Amino acid sequence: MKIQTAIFDLDGTLLDTLGDLCDSVNCAMLRHGFPAVTEEQTRVRVGNGVRNLIRQCIPEDKCTEQMLDICLDEFRTAYNQRMMNRTQPYDGIIPLLKALKRADVSVGVLSNKYDVAAKGLIRHFFGDLVQVTYGERPGVPRKPDPTSTLQLLHELGGDPDTTLYIGDSAVDIQTAKNAGLTAVGVTWGFRSAEELRQAGADTVVSSAAELLTLFENGMLNVDAICKAFTGRGFAFTYFPTAAEARAYLTDVCAGKSVSLGGSMTLQALGFPDAFRYGTAVHWHWVRKGEYFQKPDIYLSSANALSETGEIVNIDGTGNRVSATLFGPKQCIFVCGVNKLCPDLASAVERARNVAAPLNAKRLGVKTPCAADGKCHDCKSPARICRAMAIHMGPPLGMEKCEVVLIGEALGY
Fold first, then answer.
1. 239-294 pLDDT tens trace
2. What is the pTM of this model?
3. Residue from 343, 407, 398 nearest 233 by CA
4. Topology agreement, domain 5-13+87-217 and domain 222-406
5. Distance (Å, whole) CA 25 – CA 3
6. Is 1.10.3470 the CATH classification of the domain at 18-82?
7. pLDDT digits (tens, 9 = 90+) for 109-155
């Protein structure tokens, strides 16, 4: 289902505000002879409103309500003067918001930053790319209370089923859950991916481009994808993270003979170094030119997977795709979520116009696709896409053919 509404957190999600926040806190702290705070201390304290931030920065034995009120006023005065000194949008955020505007996605911002500052920052950095901004307002509970979220959703005309709530903290994830929204955690902000997952994020992304994919393709329906592949006879396993997939593959391959195809995905996962002692590892061959055709397990990635259950690979020499078809007892295709396509036609399109050009460029071959990033179906002698294999089911005689899907972008 197409995503039609987005609600973003501000600090740590759209804008890197840490430097200006830290400087403004220290204007208040140093005025009273309190120790200065570091950016790291500021980072772990933000997210629950500026009053809580200031409370944690004042030495405990000095933190009366009167002193807290004084320091909060001084912080706000300082922040109003310097909140655009070092603050900048995170990489890819402005292109993301422009893409959402072109796609008619309604965009709102909800922040625990006081309302005047939140609105001023959004207006300055994003203009009309954001329709509605709510900051902390008198008489309205702060996040993770869902009151402001639901008000904002209503003003945007959004439906909970087609809305993503995007933030960088456990507070944001809890806010989304309390409002009945899909929670997306981002790792470029003030909290780690592990903390976001522990807080209950429905998914975690590491770049604005990866986030845009969620808007274009919707949330991953693992159950439906699993059913598509298992319905064709493939085994199917899903892992949210690369680390979990690596541990699984290491266990599965322990003590076996394993051959690997040339794969940026497997390289990103740390193979072959990640294998345990006792795993006999071959990189396509026993010796150069002598191919190892009958391993216990052949590990490969794929250039594309279809959500209808097909696997698409393009090769030049043919040794990689041929090993997925005949010889090994088992074959495991290891793919990041970026390889998923809606159907077979779009999977073939991806293999030809995304994976092949990127690999041609990586290998330094002189083909038209390496120059402009799109397939020309060329006759170049350097052409690397000479054979295409489409798995519509496990090859006959193979003991097991498995798809391992990882909820992160990996490889080409």
1. 988 889 999 999 999 999 999 877 889 999 999 888 888 898 887 666 666 667 78
2. 0.64
3. 398
4. yes
5. 38
6. no
7. 999 888 999 999 999 999 999 999 999 999 999 999 999 999 999 99
